[in-house]
Automatic annotation (TrEMBL):
GO terms for molecular function: isomerase activity. Keywords: Isomerase. Gene3D superfamilies: 3.10.450.50. It comes from Kribbella solani. It comes from the Bacteria. This is Ketosteroid isomerase-like protein.
Length: 152
């Protein structure tokens, strides 16, 4: 007998993609790194629009490739920000088969500097078997780095 969820994914990949992306965004809003990571495949095509050498003010922005790396990313991100001051606008989700683009913004307050910021963001996600296999982030990295860099 065929698993109905597998048949639904094959017959309606856009519905499956949308459901996974919606659940991902819900879990990000909740803020539990382990629950977020559960939605990712064992191996992830991970990319953030940042120079390879990174920046010490944003230690969570670095190469990742595993589900455990994903959980660590969201732990580091949470540790750097004031949880009560985060938010963003309702994201727009565009779906094409297994691919999704999420457009929105993030609003955070840096714990280290107390500076609030708003950064535009786009995510390119690929979903296979109800898991995120590609996670590419395009954000206003300069705004993020400025908010987290201590004044000189």
């Amino acid at each position: 007998m065929t698993d109905p969820s597998t048949r639904a994914d094959r017959d309606h990949p856009q519905a499956s993609t949308r459901a996974t992306v919606t659940e991902f965004l819900s879990r990000v809003a909740e803020g539990d790194p382990d629950r977020i990571a559960e939605l990712f495949a064992d191996r992830v095509d991970w990319q953030l629009n940042w120079p390879d050498e990174g920046d010490p003010s944003v230690p969570w922005i670095r190469p990742r490739s595993t589900r455990a790396d994903v959980a660590e990313h969201f732990r580091e991100l949470n540790a750097a920000h004031v949880r009560e001051n985060r938010g963003g606008m309702q994201p727009q989700i565009l779906i094409d088969g297994q691919n999704a683009v999420v457009l929105g913004d993030i609003r955070q307050t840096a714990r280290s500097t107390g500076r609030s910021y708003r950064a535009l963001i786009a995510l390119h996600l690929t979903i296979a078997n109800n898991q995120i296999t590609r996670y590419h982030v395009y954000e206003d990295s300069l705004t993020v780095a400025q908010a987290l860099t201590p004044s000189r």
